[in-house]
Design a protein that fits this description.
Layout (H helix, E strand, L loop, with lengths): L1 H14 L1 H5 L5 H32 L2 H19 L5 H4 L2 H29 L7 H29 L2 H8 L1 H19 L5 H9 L6 H8 L1 H10 L1 H21 L4 H28 L2 H16 L2 H5 L4 H19 L2 H7 L6 H18 L1 H12 L1 H19 L8
C-alpha cells in the first residue's frame, strides 16, 4: 500500500503535476518544480523514521505501523481533492507540498516496521527470504500504480486525464488503507521485541542511544542503500519524464515498457533473498553494486538508441540489479542493530539513504542531461553504486 501511494505520486509528478500546479513557470521548469515536490517526501522520511522509530522501539511494532499507515494513506487520499493552480493560485502547490511531506513522514515509519515484522518472525536460516517480502511491495506497488495510470490513459482522452482522471488513483488508495488497517490490527508483537523488553526496559530516547552507541552502523547502513534508490528513481520517475518529454515516446507506450521491466525487479528480489540466505546479505549487496557500475555505461547508448526494445532491455537489466541491491536490505539493515533500537536504526539508515540516493535524483539527472547529455546520468549512477560499495566493505558484521 505504501509503495503504491509513493509511486502514484512519482508518476503523476512526471506526467501532470507540472502544468497543473506550476502553470506560471516555463514548460521545462514545470517538470523540475514537480520533481522538487517529489523530493520533499524524502526529506520528511527521516523525520518520520525518528518519530515512529521512537515509538516502535518503546511501545512496539504493531501500533506504530497502524499510525504510520493512517498518516500515509490519509495524505495520499487528500491529494485527490486538491485544487489546481488555476483554481487557487499559490495555495495549490503549497497544499501539495504539505501533503507530500505527510506522505514522506508516514512512509518514514512504514518500511522499518514491515521489515522488522518479517525478519523478527523468521526461523533460523530464513531471515533474508522473510525479509524479501516487504521488498516485493515495491514492484507490486509500482505495477498497481503505473498499471492504473495505463488503464486510465487508454480509457480517457488527454484532456479528461489532465482535468480529473489523474485524481482517481489517489482516491483509490482508500481501499488499500482499509485492507492494510484490517491486517495490521490483527498482528501481534514480534518475539524479538518481547525478549528485548524482558532483558531491559526500552530506551527512553532510542535515537540518542542509536547515535551514541551505533553510529558506525547507522552511517554505513545509510550509504549502503544509496545505490538502490538511485537505480530505481532513474529507471522510473526520471526515465518516464525523459522518455515522454525528450524522446517523444507515447505515455502509454513508455508506461508499458516500465511495467514489463519491473517484473525483473521482482525476480531480482527473490533471487537476492535465496542467495543471501545461502551466503550473506552483505555479499549480495556488494555484488549488485559492482554490477551496477558496469551497467551505468550502457545507460546513454541504450536509452538514446530510439529503439523501444533497447530501452526496455536497459530498464529490465537495471531493475534486476535493483533487486540485488534492494532485496537483501530487509535482512541486512535490521541485522546491524540490537532489537532495542532496531526500529529506529533500520528506519533512519533506510530513509536518510533515500534522501542521498533518490530524493533529488530526477532533478539532478535532468540537469546533468541538459548540460552534458545522458552519459553524465550514467556517471551519476556509477558514482551512487560506488558509494554503496565502499560503505558495505567495512560492515563485516553481516558477513555471515
Amino acid at each position: 500500500m505504501e509503495f503504491y501511494d509513493f509511486y502514484i505520486y512519482a508518476t503523476a509528478a512526471s506526467l501532470v503535476f507540472g502544468p497543473l500546479f506550476f502553470k506560471d513557470l516555463p514548460a521545462d521548469a514545470q517538470m523540475l518544480a514537480a520533481w522538487a515536490t517529489f523530493a520533499i517526501a524524502f526529506f520528511a522520511r527521516p523525520v518520520g523514521a525518528a518519530f515512529f522509530g521512537h515509538f516502535g522501539d518503546r511501545i512496539g511494532r504493531k501500533s506504530t505501523l497502524v499510525a504510520s499507515l493512517l498518516l500515509m494513506g490519509g495524505s495520499t487520499v487528500a491529494i485527490a481533492f486538491l485544487p489546481t493552480y488555476a483554481m487557487a493560485g499559490w495555495i495549490a502547490p503549497a497544499l501539495l507540498c504539505l501533503l507530500r511531506f505527510g506522505q514522506g513522514f508516514g512512509l518514514g515509519g512504514e518500511w522499518g516496521g514491515a521489515a522488522l515484522l518479517a525478519v523478527e518472525n523468521a526461523p533460523p536460516g530464513w531471515r533474508a527470504r522473510y525479509g524479501m517480502f516487504p521488498q516485493l511491495g515495491a514492484p507490486v506497488g509500482f505495477i498497481a500504480a503505473n498499471g492504473f495510470f495505463l488503464i486510465l490513459g487508454a480509457l480517457l482522452t488527454d484532456e479528461q486525464f489532465l482535468a480529473w482522471g489523474w485524481r482517481i488513483p489517489f482516491l483509490a488508495s482508500i481501499v488499500l488503507v482499509g485492507v492494510g488497517l484490517w491486517v495490521r490490527l490483527k498482528l501481534t508483537e514480534t518475539p524479538a521485541f518481547a525478549e528485548a523488553l524482558k532483558e531491559a526496559p526500552p530506551p527512553r530516547v532510542p535515537l540518542g542511544e542509536l547515535l551514541r552507541f551505533h553510529w558506525r552502523e547507522t552511517i554505513g547502513g545509510t550509504f549502503a542503500v544509496v545505490a538502490c534508490f538511485a537505480i530505481f528513481y532513474l529507471t522510473t520517475a526520471y526515465a518516464l519524464g525523459y522518455g515522454t518529454a525528450t524522446l517523444r515516446i507515447d505515455r502509454e507506450t513508455f508506461l508499458g515498457l516500465q511495467l514489463g521491466a519491473i517484473l525483473f525487479m521482482a525476480i531480482g528480489i527473490v533471487w537476492a533473498g535465496y542467495w543471501s540466505d545461502a551466503t550473506s546479505p552483505r555479499r549480495v549487496l556488494m555484488a549488485g553494486c559492482g554490477l551496477t557500475v558496469g551497467l551505468s555505461f550502457l545507460l546513454a547508448p541504450m536509452m538514446d538508441s530510439g529503439s523501444l526494445v533497447q530501452i526496455w532491455a536497459f530498464l529490465s537489466l537495471a531493475l534486476v540489479l535493483m533487486g540485488l541491491v534492494y532485496g537483501p536490505l530487509g535482512a541486512f539493515l535490521p541485522g546491524l542493530f540490537p532489537a532495542r533500537v532496531r526500529y529506529t536504526g533500520a528506519s533512519m539508515a533506510f530513509n536518510i539513504g533515500g534522501i542521498l540516493g533518490g530524493g533529488l535524483t530526477p532533478v539532478i539527472a535532468a540537469a546533468l542531461a541538459r548540460e552534458g547529455g545522458l552519459a553524465y546520468v550514467g556517471y551519476y549512477l556509477a558514482a551512487a553504486a560506488l558509494i554503496s560499495l565502499v560503505a558495505l566493505w567495512p560492515l563485516q558484521k553481516q558477513a555471515n
